[in-house]
Amino acid sequence: MDWDRSTISIARSWVIGEVADTKTEGSAKPLPMDSDLAVVLKQHRERTKKYDSPWMFVNPATGNPYWPSKIRENHLVPAGIAAGIGRVGWHTFRHTYSSLLREHEVDIKVQQALLRHADIRTTMNIYTQAVPRAVREANRKVVRNILGKQGDIEAAVRVPETTKSFQISPSPAA
Predict the structure, then answer these.
(1) Can you tell me the distance from the alpha carbon of 153 to that of 169, in angstroms, rounded to the nearest whole number?
(2) Residue 54 CB burial class (10 angstroms; 0-12, 13-18, ≥19)
């Protein structure tokens, strides 16, 4: 944590009980840290400093990080099932974060940077899902554009009984 610059850097990983380098060089680049998150992390760090560990999320029994698989099976999966969303895992958070960025209309290049994807296609095709509200809103915009107002006369869709196609024409005056 760089408290002065408000950034988080992932300097190493903990995989099956072994300390390792991050997956890619890009994974070690600093990420912005929101000021509200910084407050929470500083409070957490203060509570755990007695364990004298360089890890942010330390298991007090070992001084090392918790085993991710144990947290997943003992906490995440039961919580997901109880919430009615099924079995969730660590990547569920990445996919959710990506979809929330999309819902907030964050530029796709910014999404790519925050998710640390070398290839933007990974961000677009694997992580980011269409948000139902956004899909409905996009559809609404197109429909209203087509059916919108033509001058002061509202448009109406007229489907001639003899054809399968339709045309848009002004509504008759009432």
Answers:
(1) 10
(2) exposed
Last residue in a domain, options 66, 92, 107: 66
Q: Is residue 82 included in any domain, yes or no? A: no
In this structure, how many other beta carbons lie within 10 angstroms of the beta carbon of residue 112? 21
Number of domains making up the chain: 2
Q: What is the pLDDT of residues 102-159, one digit of tens each?
A: 888 888 899 888 888 888 888 887 777 776 777 778 777 777 777 764 444 444 545 4
Cα distance between residue 13 and residue 30, in whole Å: 15
pLDDT of residue 105: 85
Instruction: Give the structural domain span for 148.
Output: 133-170
What is the token pair recorded at 133?
């509200």
Per-residue pLDDT at 80 exceeds 50 = yes
